[in-house]
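Run log, item B.
One chain of 154 residues. Sequence copied directly from the ordering sheet:
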Amino acid sequence: MAESVWDYPRPPAVRACSLPIEVHVGGVVICRTSTSWQVLETSHPPTYYLPREAFAAGVLQPGSGHSFCEWKGAALYLDLVVDDRTEPRAAWYYPNPSPGFEMLTGHVALYAGRTDGCFVDGERVTPQPGGFYGGWITADVTGPFKGGPDTRGW
């Protein structure tokens, strides 16, 4: 049975996930893991935080800029680099997450739309609408989802 993102809390909750996950870029599986964290926040599909060590060597490169989440703290961006392809600011992480989110240390989240495909338990995810949020939509969650046109004030 699918979960409604409107049942997720605010401030967000963090839930351990043991479903197999793969991330593909440039015809290469750049990440494969069955241990991750889901951040669950009202109106958002889950954002998956994957262990940094699950990524292929050299794929994650320092990116430009930073952002701030009122719940998780200061984030830094990473570029995804595979052969001659670079996806700037396609991933982010919290080097020193705020209290309550310490489990995200050493984990990376990705914008699914900047990859060739992100898969959860074999299912290709749909990126959260818009370009700002990084949630992954699967058959296990229902919306409507924040991020599309006219949802900024949700």
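Observations after the first pass:
- Residues 3-142 form a domain with the Metal Binding Protein, Guanine Nucleotide Exchange Factor; Chain A fold (CATH 2.170.150.40).
- The radius of gyration is 15 Å.
Flagged for discussion on Thursday.
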